Records
---
Amino acid sequence: MIHPEWRPAFHAAPAQGWLNDPNGLCFFKGSYHAFYQYTRDWPASNLRSWGHAVSEDLLAWRELPAALDPSIPEDRTGVYSGCAWISPEGRMNLYYTGNVIYEGGYDRIHEGREANGILVVSEDGLVFSEKRVLLRNADYPGTCTLHVRDPKVWEHDGSLWMVLGAREQGDRGQALVFRSDDGISWKHHRTIRSREPFGYMWECPNVGVLAGREFIALCPQGLPSEELRRHNHWHAGYVVLDGRVIDTDTLDETRFREWDFGWDFYAPQIFTDERGRTILIGWMGTFDKGRTSAPDGLPWCHCLTLARELALADDGGILQRPVCELESKRGAALALDGTRVLADHLADIELVGMDAAGALVLDGSLAISFEGDLLSVSFSHPDVGAGRVSRTVKLPAPARDARVVIDRSCVEIYLDGGETVFSTRWFPVAGELSVALSVPCTRATVWPLEA
């Protein structure tokens, strides 16, 4: 049976079809825009377009018609990921990778593939110009394979800069940096490589600045999983730099930190809003086999994460917190001592001053457990987890504070001010939400959330 209450209230999701990477995140003429990889004919097709949603508060997302579909020879097998750059004249410029896969017996790494850099422009964020092809495979360094994609564009010191993820000959991930004076003609500026091999492909590079320090976000493919980290097939993380991205040749891969330890997180994108906040939104999904986000024939698959504001931590890491707008959706505060039952699977829970082992259990089927410097998340009911079973991650130190946001089929866990984050989908079968606490703490509060 498909449960209508699985549709989240505050996580963007399509009415039908498949969603993956967020694209083109921006604040434009009074609204937040979230584009995303979208397959309207899923599961019959995997042809990617750009879906489109808008919001005034980063919480209530209104779905619009798909913004970009494959329509020219240079993107005929997919409108792949990209970004938005708002020009000083107030135009929305969308840069993306046009994917082309040749039919035949090609390996599609060294032959049989195109990765074309394409631009469309909009005056209103709703109607888009004709497509303009800016970059082709011949424009990338000869050290690259045909895997080059996911442009991120930003302005610095009067120039426009673009970073692209790439797969080098010899199967090493790298990032390409391009420069432009007009946003149309681009010239290769430098290539960023890791000191030691660090995955065979770097997807979805992003660049941000926090407290004057630049960081680069990467999704390296091909990293080995470890017992207490990097559990997913592909990983997403960041490196805070000592200098600027445009001046970096070598990345210290030992400084790479994961954004999120959960089952459902990949391909985040970062942007700065009109208030100067640096905001991250990720794909709350996975390509990993054995887990589904559309049980019982659900007609839509996957969603985006909550919008998260980023801040630089004292130790040089990055803290993630749900944007403050979420607090406006809180109802009356309820003390959490033992078990609480709420009418809907919408809740914001805070645990302050945890000082011993214990667990927060949702519906008797999803346990969030704390023991020393370990966090464990486990499902006791296989249908609720839809292939997700149990995972344990190591924390920098025993957690003192926790925040758990439940948005129907989404659960996001933030520990110690967002030092550690864990995101998972779940598919509750209970009509009401039960919350049971066995963690000793100074204060425990649950707020029902109002959609």
---
Amino acid sequence: MAEAATAAIEEHAALLRRLEPLLATVDAVGARLVRAFAEGGRVYTFGNGGSSVDAQHFAEELVGRFARERRPLPAQSLAVDAAALTCIANDYSFDQVFERQVRAFVREGDVVLAFTTSGRSPNVVRGLAAARDAGATTVLLGGGDGGPAAEHADHALVVPSEATARVQEMHVLLLHLLVDHVDRWAAGEGA
């Protein structure tokens, strides 16, 4: 076990160093989130499996707080309502669960963040496409090459790895960087 753990840590550290080129995009997305909140917009997130947890984590850090006392910000994860997910999946298809919610809630000026380790989940791809059609700014937190989801992202934070665990570890770092950017602004520390 120790060898496997050491290998995982070394893989994590090597991948972490490869994220530096994404920092300009992190700044651009952070600025876009700030602008959306300043102009009365909302943030919506979604993903499947572990990515749904990351999507929820991101939204709830905005509603609650990250590192500073500040007002709650309007953010919601579309992956947390079991009744909506199962209703839409049953009445339409699982591929439409995020698309239908996006069409119901997302408006021009909002920001939609989709979390997916592969970028290939049809429900995530369709949700991003619907968000872009609605006039929202779309952000992909993906892995590998971003897959088909990247085609519908205004901003792509794609972790250059095919290893799901490593991608998800980097997604947590990236979401914390984004939340910190917004947190500083919302607490009056600039952005």
---
Amino acid sequence: MPLLGIRFVNSRKTRFLRDRCVLNTVVVGAQWGDEGKGKIIDVLAQRADVVVRYQGGNNAGHTVVKACGEFVLHLIPSGIFHKNVHCVIGNGVVVDPQALMAEVNGLEKRGIRVRGRLHISDRAHLIFPYHRIYDRLREDKKGFIKIGTTGRGIGPSYGDKALRSGIRMIDLYEPKVFAAKLKKALLEKNEIFRKIYSFKGFSFKKIYAEYQAYARVMRPFVCDTALFLHEAIAKKKRILFEGAQGTHLDVDHGTYPFVTSSHVTAGGASTGSGIPPYAVTNVIGVVKAYTTRVGEGPFPTEFDETLMDRVRKKGKEFGATTGRPRRCGWFDAVLVSYSCRINGIREIAVTKLDVLDDLPEIKICVGYRYQGKLYRHFPASLSVQTEGTPVYEKFPGWMQDTSAVCRFSALPENAKRYLKRLSDLLSVPITILSVGSHEEQTLYIR
């Protein structure tokens, strides 16, 4: 009987990638982010025409290792390294112009052409200096729940969007509209800063001039990206949709309130880019062979400090955006099964298998026990998530280096058994396996 319900072969890479990119595919993290989506998107983008970011802001960090060095992307989609691929920042993204242009200039200085290939939605909302300050002041205010925000202003920008007081990219190109919106925003924000946080507030003239300057340099990138994507779909172009964070940071489906402020799940690809739901025909979920998260919030399978330090060092588990050390733990099949259901995940990409190479025993969480009840499905209850005791299945480690393995059949038997059990628990086939950060350290499974 074939392992994982499919036949594992070292497929011809070109055929594999072609098959994955014929469809309009969403690539979404199935844990708390940092699963290695940047690498997987970069690999799949070799046979794509367009790559789209549909949510989040520069609080995301996708690391891509190329022959010319390591790159960390925050706003620009990971398809930018392929010269024939167009990259789109959709309407569901919040854009900090300062961070965006620094990223554009940094890539071009390293020989990656961005101009003429990057398209930014004119409906995307903007991040302003007062969003960044408010983010930090609110996080530090006593009595508030500490979320572990990056302090980049993402949440406050989405908050203004929901309150219908946000400022969009298109507003920059209508000076009267922009001036009126900015004055109203500062009238409210400066009052809050002075009375609640004893912060002096912001100057209208300074921000207005600064953002008019950004408007000029961003002008070549800004367009109706929904129209661009509809035309691409009509021409049967191959489109990849890139989630910025992991499913369990989704504002609706994540471990609320320890979440981000946008719709991370596959459904967000439609609302965050302007394409109809029926246009998405495949969803690939990306998971680590273990689990990590950054910031505050529940983490049922978190390691003890000794194992945490060991795995963190080997896996280089430090945030690409903030540099903060990531919390690490065993693979949580309850957590990921929930992601598979709500995203409609049809394939799994597993990353960082090699980090587990020297562990004598490996565990998979298959349930939580709380107040005498066994939970097999991921609960909404923060109490169960925080205080529940994980129920584990245990597996012998393989104690062999997998980082140089180039075909599935060459993996240690215990590694194969571990992967088979993951696939069985998730009821989803594993089609991509990463055993290192470089593109060559990738197994394609048909």
